[in-house]
Amino acid sequence: MNKNNKSFYLYFVIIIGLLLFTVWIGTLKIQGNNYTRGEFESQLKNENVAIAKISPNKETPTGSVKITLKTGEERVLNVTDVIEIENLIRDYGLDPVVESVPEENWFLNSVFPILLVTTICVFFFVMFNSQNSSGNSGGKMMNFGKSRARLSLGDNKVTLGDVAGLKEEKEELEEIVEFLKEPGKFTRVGARIPKGVLLEGAPGTGKTLLAKAIAGEANVPFFSISGSDFVEMFVGVGASRVRDMFAEAKRHAPCIVFIDEIDAVARRRGTGMGGGHDEREQTLNQLLVEMDGFGTNEGIIVLAATNRVDILDPAILRPGRFDRKISVASPDIGGRQDILKVHARNKPLGDDVDLEQIAQTTAGFTGADLENLLNEAAINAAMDRRIYVIQEDIKKAFIKVGIGSEKKSRIISDKEKRITAYHEAGHAILFHVLPDVGPVYTVSIIPTGIGAAGYTMPLPEKDEMFLTKGKMKEDIMVSLGGRIAEEIIFDDITTGASSDIKKATKAARRMVTRYGMSENIGVINYDNDDDEVFIGRDLAHAKSHSEIVAGEIDKEVKRIIDECYREAKEIIMKHESVLHKCAELLLEKERINRTEFEALFE
Ligand code: ADP
Ligand code: MG
Ligand code: ZN
Annotated catalytic sites, by residue? Predict the structure, then answer.
């Protein structure tokens, strides 16, 4: 693709260059002037002319006369008859120089047009050819309805060894690899292998990587295409691409067809908000038809990946289509450590790097986040001209990746700083005192790239499968801690706590409407799935509860928040001396770590 682009530009530049050249040659000939015959004759009469040089044109008898006046000035006169003008000049006693008729410019007249035509021919030839040779991937102009799937045959170097963690997921896919390697083993006993496998999970959990690894492991042709490649402006193009792709796949069976981000084509049909979904529906229909069309065990396995399984059309999940669904989960501690190991392979680590500890502090990170973390750390090491990565690099990267780069340069007033220091100290004290949250890893009042004035980062010691009511309440209390500290210390309160308040409110509302954690409301789900994609569908749905219940819910949410506020305030008041000490220390050092913070409690 790149190479083709280069030659495209090369020919483009050559053609433009040649065109400019011809234009330039042309302009040379028609240098006009407004010297008239009358002026010339009067100057001849007055004997002002020193030299006259006659240059006949090719198409005789026309030509031009270059006249040098006695004053040294030069004039050019275009004439229709050079013989006549020569005689005229001789009549006045001058002896004009007569140049010979110019020879044909052989380059301009014969070679140049041939060159131009050849160049243009080569140009088009290369352009069309490049589209065909780059297979089905490029070619906007020629292969509109052709599949854009990229085919890779055995040059795929990713193996299951590159995929860390994801043990169950890999086991489930193992049998597909086995089938592709040795179909006979399965058909002999009448086993049916799934036609389609849907990988589902949050972005960055390694779905694409897993699909590539399967192909690499099975060593079969691998067609990969992204769902959005089917979507074009013109109706019918997507469907035709699907058809083309499967025709191609059948020719290469056994093989894997991988449709990444399948939600782009396989959205639930008939939810049409905003229109323009006809094309997508056609494409999806074609996809379903094709998947029904090839028999089981024909050797084509369709893998698809999505992070929005909830918006997929149910028809796609029916048996005979994507009847196997594999959830690719965010890694747990062990998984994270394995992923870190994989990505640390080509990065020399210093002896103080503790991958286990990093795995501990990165709860919620996906594989892609971890990869990014180590990459940032390596960049930090390179910036320090070190040839190996130390723990400090990773710490810095952690803050950059997790919170956004610290922006030390932003200027903030002392008052703002003081408020932020107390605000963060409020959060930190609650993290420390409450049993189910924390401990505090870092407290900082250095503004971050994402607009926060500071942050308090806890260090969760374990992964949690589910939240308890107690933990949720503690989370709410921690969120409110910043505002409470502001209120205790300053008479005034600030707008800085808006996102804290939002977070607390959201948690409280979920406790009431989703988790059945409020006695007054009971164990009933009043939670509307907040799925913005389907506003169209949801608008048509009636609200699931009455206005009275809505009022009750609001009351409960307020009660929970108020209760948490009261309890949190008590705790902070009890540790007011720590609050002051912590804020002072923050103002002094801008960022304090766990040991420094815990020392404040003596
Ligand atoms: P997804 O397709 O789920 O959004 P990708 O497969 O594109 O995520 O993953 C992005 C990158 O994250 C991969 O290229 C890889 O470097 C890293 N990664 C994700 N999961 C893993 C894993 N389990 N093991 C190793 N690397 C991983
Ligand atoms: Mg992906
Ligand atoms: Zn806050």
Answer: 424
